[in-house]
Amino acid sequence: MSGLLIELLNKRYSIRDFKNKKISQNIISYILNAGRMAPSGGNEQPWKFGIIDEKYMIYRVSEYTYGQKWINKAPLIIALCTETSKVEYAKKLQSVRFPKLKHKISNMDDELFKMLNMEEHQTKIAGTLMMLAALEKGVYSTWVSKFQSYRISRLLGLPDGFIVSELLVLGYPRENKKFSPKKNLSDITFYNRCLDKKEIFMKKIIEIQPSQLYISERKLDFALKSIRKNGFDKKRPLPLLRIKGKDTFSDGHTRALAALMEETEEIPVYYDKDDLNIQMYEICIKWCQEERIFGIDDLKERIVSHKKYKELWLDRCKKMREKLKKSQNEKH
User: Fold this and answer.
1) Which residues touch 16 (CB under 8 Å, ≥6 apart)?
2) Digit-coded pLDDT (tens) for 106-158
3) What are residue 243's DSSP bridge partners?
4) Contact indicator for 167, 205 with CB cutoff of 8 Å
5) Which fold, 200-330?
6) What is the second-level CATH architecture of the domain 4-171?
7) What are phi and psi of 64, to 5 degrees?
8) pLDDT in tens, 243-265
9) What's the pTM value of the predicted model, to 2 decimals?
C-alpha cells in the first residue's frame, strides 16, 4: 500500500529528544491551518489552539504533566483547548447514545460531566491533522494526555467554557528512530459484524430458508461478476436467524443465489445476534411460504429490474415495518 499519506505515517514516531532548533513561524502557521480546516459536527469548531513557544511557559506547562521532564526541551507545544458543551444539551445527547445510562447521566454533577464529556468533542481530529501537517514539514510530535488540565487551563488564561483537552508537543528529532510496528489490518478490522472465527461455519445453501420474495437483477449481476472474478468472499459470511427451528437468511439473499448459480454448494454463515426484528422476519417467511418460495433456488423465478425490486419488495417491507412500529408504540 503506497501514497503520500501512508508514506508519511510510515515515518512517524513519538519524539521525546529534540534538536535545539526553533520551528519557523511559517511552518507553525501551516500546522495551525491544518487544524483550522478540521471537520466538526455541525461545523461548530469547538476549539482554540494555544501556541506555547516561550521557554518559561513551556517549563511551567511541563510542571503539570506528572514528571514528563522531556517536554522542557521541546521548542513548541500546541494546547488543544475544547469548548465545553452546554450541559443540558450534552446530557440529552449522551442519554440518546446510552439509553441504559440515561438516569445516571441526568443525575451526574454538572461540573464532573463537563470535564468527562470534553473527550466527546472533536478537538482530537484537529490535533491529528496538525500532527500530519507538521510531519509533512519534517516536524515530529508527541501526543500528551496525562496532565493537570484545570491548572494548565488557568496558566494559559483560558476563558470560562474552555479547557485544555490535549497537548501536542512538537520539534525536530535529535536522531531518527524507527516507526513503531502496528497491528495487521486483519487483527483490527471486521466487515459488517464483529465475529469470532469460531462463530463462522459452513452451511449448504439449499438448507437455508429465504425471507425475501424478489431479487434485483442489477444487484445479482454485480454479485455474479464478483464471484466469477474472486470466488465467494469468505471474509463476508452471511447472517442467519434461527426461526421456529429453521435457519433463515436475515440478509444476503442475492449473494447466496449468485453462489448457487455458480455451483457453490456451501457458504460461510453465522448466527445473527440481532434478534430485534424476529417478528418482521416471521412475516417475511410467511409471505414466502404463501408464494411457494421455500429455498434460495426458488428465487431464480423472482429476478426483476431494480426499479421493480424497490416497488415490489423494499416498499412492501417499509410499510410492514411502519405498521409493526405503530403497533408496538400503541402497546406502550
Assistant:
1) 70, 142
2) 898 888 887 777 655 689 999 999 999 999 999 999 999 999 999 999 999 99
3) 246
4) no
5) 3.90.1530
6) 3-Layer(aba) Sandwich (3.40)
7) -105, 25
8) 989 999 999 999 999 999 999 99
9) 0.70
**Contacts by 319-325, CB closer than 8 A, 24 or more apart:** 320/280, 320/283, 321/280, 324/279, 324/280
Secondary structure class of 227 (helix, strand, coil): helix
Q: Report the C-alpha dihedral over residues 44, 46, 49, 50, rounded to 10 degrees.
A: 150
Q: CA 122, CA 118: separation in Å to the nearest integer? A: 9
Amino acid at 170: L
Name which of 131, 109, 123 is nearest 164 in CA terms: 123
Q: Is the dihedral of CA 4, 5, 10, 11 positive or negative?
A: positive
Cα distance between the two ends of the chain: 53
Asked whether 239 and 172 are in contact (CB, 8 A), the reply is no
At position 308, the amino acid (one-letter code) is K
Strand (E) positions, the chain? 47-52, 76-83, 140-144, 162-171, 201-204, 215-216, 238-243, 246-249, 266-271, 303-304
Domain with CATH 3.40.109.10 in the chain: 4-171
Lookup result for grid cell 408496538 = 328
Q: For cell 534538536, what's the residue? A: 19
